[in-house]
Amino acid sequence: MNNRFLSASASSRQTRGRNNQRISANTVRTRLSTSGLRARRPYIGPILTQRHRQQRTLWAQEHVAWDPVQRQSVVFSDKSRFCIAHADGRVRLWRRSRERYQADCVRELDKWGGASLMM
């Protein structure tokens, strides 16, 4: 599948069966399901360069041996962000269960992509 974000309906319009006949969206869904692909919400994360990925990996490797006391010193935030500038929308893509963080299954989002309210 070239574009995992393409819906089954849009894929059926672009794909032709034998003898150049149209195929139904239901056929597309069935074939994708048979291949182990399901329609799921994408992981939405920041735009990461190769350098960012390397730095994150190095940080994780340096801190993998932390004991529970050291981990308790980390502060987690429970803030919620509400988008004002645009609708969040329900985007879905076709992926297998363990492909969540695979590069073509991530919808990169610019951190400063619009007005929002933090509470």
From TrEMBL:
Name-wise, this protein is Transposable element Tc1 transposase
Residue ranges of domain Transposase Tc1-like in the record: 2-64
Which GO molecular function entries does the Swiss-Prot or TrEMBL record give? DNA binding
- State the residue spans of region: Disordered: 1-22
Which InterPro entries does this UniProt record tie to the protein?
RNaseH_sf, Transposase_Tc1-like
Q: Which biological processes are named by the entry's GO terms?
A: DNA integration; DNA transposition
Q: Which domain of life is it from?
A: Eukaryota
Q: Tell me what organism the protein belongs to.
A: Elysia marginata
